[in-house]
Amino acid sequence: MKARWTVGVGLLLSAASALAGTPQFDALRDGLEAGHVGTVEALVAALPGSLRDAYALAFASRSLQGASFASPRAILYGTDATFIVTFNGEAPERGHATVETMEFDASANRFVLREIGFAADGDPAGRSISEPNPARCLACHGTPARPIWDLPPAWPGIYGERYGAGLSSAEKAGIEAFLARQPTHPRYRYLEDATRFAARSNYVPDGRAVYSGASLEPPNARLSTLLAALNARSILAELVAAPGFAAHRYALLAATSAACGPPEAYYPQSRQGDIRREFGAFRERTRLARAREANAKTERRTGVKRAASGAGATAGLEALRFVTEEGLGLSTAHWSLALEHGAAARAAPEGATTLERGLLELAAAEDPGLRNLVTYRGYTATDGYCSYLKRASRRALAAWDEGHPPRAALASAAPLATATAGAPAPALLGSCAACHTGEVAPAIPFSVPDLLAERLLEGEYPHGRLLDEILYRLGPESGAARMPRGTTVTAAEQHELEVYFLSLPPRLADRR
User: What pTM did the predictor assign?
Assistant: First the structure.
């Protein structure tokens, strides 16, 4: 039965890859049902070789699946990362009885996350499959869901974490421990050519490979490029679906190139002063977010805390993100693949499909002359390409403004509000509730205000009561322990959460 299912799932997944728009997870689920599969081991054994041949290994994980040096989390991404399967190897680690998947839905240009759970006794009847994008996954991956994968030059916690530098001494010892058990391990033995992870050439091309032109990027960099390209497709689809996209398409395209000047140049004269001021504030918030993300990433890799100065932060896609948020009213927090949600990192590594190319194709479909202009551009603010974009953008936005009053200053720049008794819960509270279920993090009733109000004034934590501990964890002074985990919290969001938590005990007293 197992052998028959192994062939069946491999064929189903291969066929799904060949048929555009055919969900690969559906093929996997059909195989699970047909083969009466009840264990993680049986599922991994049945995956096609192409998926088991391209993977990364995480020795430190903040996901729902734990990891260690000798028992890493395997992230199988295949040839194009459109279907990713992950699992770990030791029973004490969290998530040992689960397989996680992430599929890129090409028809909707979005990522779909799922979790498959298996019963301890291996009974297929005890197998469970989550709904698409369950809340416990979205708590870190966000809405819309995005991949979480660092960009070069470092992937903290992943073997080969330093781009172009080979393995550290700790990684070398860890991979030796892993390889000593891999050939006979019930799960890891199905990974193809695992010994390559001990070779320096897996991370740094040797002279022969460079000379012959056969050198490949290391596994972590390849996955970065693949995921960034898919994420760019998801972002472009979201932009196109926005009501104001047609009017803002020239401004968005101009914003992808620093050569075309600052964003205010794309707007009608009457709005340029306001846009200039708003963009200045936006850049400062981005600078601070970049500093926090860079320092958090460094701490994840080295354990060393640093002050958030923002030094060395690059401009990235600030102008494009600004026009997207100001003009279309869309959040760009999910544009980054970084663990720190909303970190404002660049959208793609070198070599990946870019937003600039995608936006040019979209705009040129309605305005074919753009192709000639971009071919002969001089990469200055006054060349024919940039000059045309500015003129076309000002006309389009002037017409748009006639029927749509200019958007107020960006929400993240708005004055901080004071919560009232009837005010809705802060948006980030959902992230707290999703994690603190007792399985991933200690059980705290964030989704039940009455119960939470009682708990806030209780407990003995390092910084006092639960309320004191929460207020400390919300601030930047808590460093890597800052909450919500994996989120770059703005000053406005921190204040909103603080006001909310502080308002709960008085409300409880009033009810009593």
Answer: 0.75
